[in-house]
Amino acid sequence: MLSKTIGMKTRSAARKRTRxxxxxxxxxQAAKGRVVNLSATGMALDLTxxxxxxxxxxxxxxxxxxGILEGIIKWAHGxxxxxxxxxxxxxxxxxxxxFRFFHRExxxxxxx
Length: 112
Prior knowledge:
This protein is mainly β and 112 residues long. It has helices at 2-5, 91-101, and strands at 16-26, 29-38, 42-47, 58-63, 67-77, 80-85. Helices cover 13% and strands 45% of the residues. The longest helix has 11 residues, at 91-101.
């Protein structure tokens, strides 16, 4: 695995594909997006517009299905953000509840 050879830290929890819509907030800016995958420790979002925040910035994600989640930007690339949840937040309980009661497996719309 490439991440092991270059010493990059990877997500330890299993990811699930989702189609959840939400808004990520950083100070005065907000960007709408779609949560494309989700785990107990973090998420990846595809954003619909510009969003200017550096890795390590604290953000808040608001979603009808998940509620309000707080986290840290771990990476940003090409309109997509990787967010790691703050360990002292209630994010793990909210994500667990979502998976228990609401999540349905989704398949990609387009296949390569």
